[in-house]
Amino acid sequence: MKRITKIDAVESQSKKKLRVAAYCRVSTDSEAQLESLEAQKSHYENYIAARNDWEFAGLYFDEGISGASAENRTALMQMMKDCENRKIDFVITKSISRFSRNTTDCLELVRKLLDLDIPVLFEKENINTGSMESELFLAILSSMSQDESSSISLNNKWSIKNRFQNGTYKISYPPYGYDWNGEEMIVNTEQAGVVKRIFAEVLIGKGTKAIADALNADGVPTKKGGKWTASTINGMLKNEKYTGDVIFQKSYTDSRFKRRTNNGERDQYMVADHHEAIISKEDFETAAALLETRAAEKNIVSGSGKYQRRYAFSGKIICGECHSTFKRRTHYQKEQSYAAWCCNTHIEDKEKCSMKYIRDDDLQFAFITMMNKLIFAHKLILKPLLEEFKSNGTDNNLHRTHEIQTLLLKNKEQRETLTRLMTSGYIDKIVYTKENNELLMQAENYRRETQMLAGSATDDNAKVSELNSLLRFAEKANMLLCFDEELFSRHVSRIIVYSRQDVGFELKCGLVLREKM
């Protein structure tokens, strides 16, 4: 009989250690929370160092940042990048809520790490994503964390609203002209002088841009040390805090954590004589009335897009060099004057853009010439283009849409097959989850492409409609002898200025027609 001797396995001394990184986060930068962060950092340094099979790969931490969204957390994003660059093999974090309070973000991050073969250990919940059978448990816990975050947010909003109602809300970051002493707003004497200067200059008829330019020329810094602008001045002139009153909840955070201006969607609360005034109520109201009068003169409507069209070309002329808009100005030559359009960038700094002005009457003449060419040659240009629009665009979209429908059916069959293989025991749940998620993502991409094609079809239909309208006009119109503002607004999206002698009219039907001046 053969003699067999067992040789015991010896663990390799050169076995590669796992490179382990830890992630910590505190949601505010208060002293207590920062102490908590220091405790977390110390814990993980000792925890990782205590394992012989682990190697410390770094500690990533975010201070004073909410977990509601991952995109704002720079340390977390850096850790993900290091994982992609294969600098980390394993990640530890205190709990799901510290990792992310947003279900979608949490699952997306975990899936991305699993695709890189990097598990995550959530200490509090004792979940190791590298060994769990299903994402369901993680999804439930992550959803609970999100609910908790929403609950905390609602509690905070309720608390702030109560302080609005009883007038005890503290404005910790007051406007220019005031400081915060920890309890209330107090007047900053030096800045208050600038505030009074601004209101005084408005009351004697000076414009907001002129005031801003004068303050910059005098070297007066803004609250943050930057440059003054017309919009900054305009905002100050509308800020009731300079009269000693305060209106709470002029803005609010919506359900998606986006900050919005309160245009009546939420209650507002006014507290009279909240703090010391810098400007009298009479001067404040007079300045407001002057702003309204000037806005009415210029057809400016507050809160809507910004400007109504004062001239046919307003907002429609684009510089072909720097892509800035053009501004209308009046040029004087001896005893005569004429309207011209100038690039805003060139006005501010000639070094940044060399595009010189173009005359308003030259632009009008170029438009008349372009339209007369279309009227004369509409059968050679517009009719064939309309037929091409109608056939090519629609056919291509329909063909691709049918292709996607076939791919979606195939994707559904693959998912059903995958489910059968998993329930029959041919593949384990981890493989099933990974493959099924990929197929679901693929299906979602197909659906998005279908929506894009539908949107593209809508755009094509709009262009066909615009081209139809232009063709009908060209078929019946006589040659133009003068500029027609209504006709220009009806058919032209914008004018691109390539040079003082060459412009392009971008029509609403998609055509761009160049014209010499």
UniProtKB/TrEMBL annotation:
InterPro entries xref list: DNA_bind_recomb_sf, DNA_bind_recombinase_dom, Resolv_N, Resolvase-like_N_sf, SSR_resolvase, Zn_ribbon_recom_dom
PROSITE patterns: RECOMBINASE_DNA_BIND, RECOMBINASES_3
Residues covered by the Resolvase/invertase-type recombinase catalytic domain: 19-167
Protein origin, superkingdom: Bacteria
SMART domains: Resolvase
Pfam family, one: Recombinase
Recombinase domain boundaries: 175-297
Protein name per UniProt: Recombinase family protein
Source organism of this protein record: Aequitasia blattaphilus
